[in-house]
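Recall the central idea of this unit: under ordinary conditions, the amino acid sequence of a chain determines the structure it adopts. In this exercise we apply that idea directly, starting from the sequence alone.
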Amino acid sequence: MRIKRGIRRVDLAYAQLASSEIARDMNRDVVLELIRARQPISRADLARLSGLQRSTVSLIIEGLLKEGWIREGAIARRPRGRRPTMLVLNEDLAMIVCDIRPTQAIVAVVDLNGRFLSRESLPVLSDPAQAVAQIVDRMKKMRQKHTQKSFEGVGVSLPGRVDPETHELIFAPNLKWPRFDIKNAIERGMGLPVELDNAANACLLSELWFGRMDGVRNAVLLTISEGIGAGVLANGQLVRGKSGMAGEFGHIPLDPAGPKCACGGRGCWETLASSSAALRYYSELNGTKQALTIHQLIAKAEGGDAKAVEALKKQARLIGRGMRAIVSALSPEMILVTGDVIAAWNWFGPIVEEELTPLMLAGTPPRLMPVEESEVARLRGAAALVLQRHTGQHRSRKAKPRA
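Accordingly, the structure predicted from this sequence is:
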């Protein structure tokens, strides 16, 4: 079965593991995603587009209405025959989302359609317990501002890797937090289920749920900011690997004599091609260390600062060189890019393609696609974490909405 717009595909190699419960959850996901993508939509059109029996669609719709995910809207006008009642997502449902970065956290309220209802930022403390306590306090205050909404859960995007079994943050060199159980700390504070994942995985899920990946089964999404992270889609499935560590291309060494990396190695890709690397190149060209942000550096380049231009060009060339390893290893159809570099992608992109294209082993290079502004992508990704359905881990919402 193959459904567009990011719905889970079935791998026949694992068909013997299927069960009626798994099939029911997958069909539910298909219907919910079609409603999101095509709303307002009738039950008959859902049956036609999904390929499911009308009776199956009716049962799923009944459950989704009872659980509060969707609601009935207007009655469609038709030239003849019955006039169907159209279905839409329930706008009264919302999620609290958080994007945690090395220096700041952004907390927001997002509805099922990906619209931001409010958004605030706060500094991130070095102690994870204190930092999470502050984040929870901000989430509670934000929730109190939207008492008319029913909150489904909390989604958290992180600059590191989360063990899918323990749900603990196990690798976050740029955040510099020790191993910490963020999930349980937030669940205790908020009284809501919490989903969390690496920022790149979250952004990839966001593109699958809200984005432009119709029919794409093999893709890599790169987050390029203070570090470099990657989310991998292979044969229509998100690849997590052992302990959730798949996709750490940012820590592949490109120069053994290069700068020391936060992971302990030297010359890792992210030490050469991240925003931090571009700022270092600019300081080296100037001979002095300046307290700049990457956006200030981009502004200098756009203003004609030749050294700023050269620093960013060097970063772009090394982004392209690092992508060669991804293309050789995974052969993706598409590489999506988000992060600080998107602010200047109109001239960043051609340099990256120039580095990537000539050394293709065979065929054409993957399509490069910039993703919306990094903060939005990560927050929508955190929302997608709540929306996603894990086979065997499906949690039905209570019929009575939670406050």
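The radius of gyration is 22 Å.
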